[in-house]
Amino acid sequence: MKKVFLILGLIVLALLLPFFFTDVGRHEGADHNAGLPWQIEVDGTGSSQVFGVVLGRDRLGDMLSVLGAEPELAIIAAPGEAGSLEAYFSELRLGFVLAKVVLTLEATPEMLVAMAERAPKAEYMESSTRKIRLAPDDRALAESLPVQAISVIPTVNLDEATLIERFGTPGERLPVSPERVHLLYADKGLDIVVDAQGKELLQYVPPRDFARLREPLRQAESVPDATR
Fold first, then answer.
1. Using CA atoms, how far apart are residues 85 and 186, in angstroms rounded to an integer?
2. Do 105 and 86 contact (CB within 8 A), yes or no?
3. Where are the beta strands (DSSP E) in the chain?
């Protein structure tokens, strides 16, 4: 039994080491630390570059040529809403980090409605949220759209101390429950959701658009607690 726990401990240590030592696994002539989650470049226009993508400028097709992977393209829509157009990757290697990745594309409401009407099928996800798969002819249109936001779910569970070690002290720390806290970096356009019971979520937008991440949290704060 002790041997089993020792092996499990070594596996966990091997997964977490890269988050503390960025020189692990480096080979001459190759930069294995490029495109890591905490490498965010901000310019003077309020834009940012992460994973080699300039948010709000670079198109999905440009990113696919770099990633060498094909995503699942779908409109994710709640009842009564046009929804958002998303490109989902079940697993991508970001530097030495493996993660699930969702790219949100800049699509107008009119464009989303037209795509939904041409879609071959739709299915329900959690509750009444729909996943509307794109028609084949709409894929080229989707690839021509800029990447508006990026969401990343690392395969390794990370605690708050580890994340702050990598990303720095957040501008705001917002607990939303005993298990969940948001680490908000307005200057980087980043919201990290730390979940003690599940996977962490990293959400990137151009810093000029950070209100898109912060405003829903502000609205949630203003809702009265009926249990009080």
1. 24
2. yes
3. 40-42, 48-50, 53-54, 72-77, 84-94, 97-105, 121-124, 130-133, 147-154, 172-175, 180-185, 190-195, 201-204
Torsion 108-114-117-118 (CA) sign:
negative
In angstroms, the CA 188 to CA 208 distance is 9
What the block records as the tokens of 15 is 């997964």
Cα dihedral 10/11/12/16 (nearest 10): 100
Q: What size, in residues, is the chain?
A: 228
Beta strands in 24-179 (DSSP E): 40-42, 48-50, 53-54, 72-77, 84-94, 97-105, 121-124, 130-133, 147-154, 172-175
Average of per-residue pLDDT values in the chain: 82
- The two tokens of residue 25 are 């696994």
The per-residue pLDDT for range 126-140, each reduced to its tens digit, is 778 899 999 999 999
Cβ(87)–Cβ(149) below 8 Å: no
Is the separation of the CB atoms in 144 and 122 below 8 Å?
Answer: no
- Global pTM? 0.80
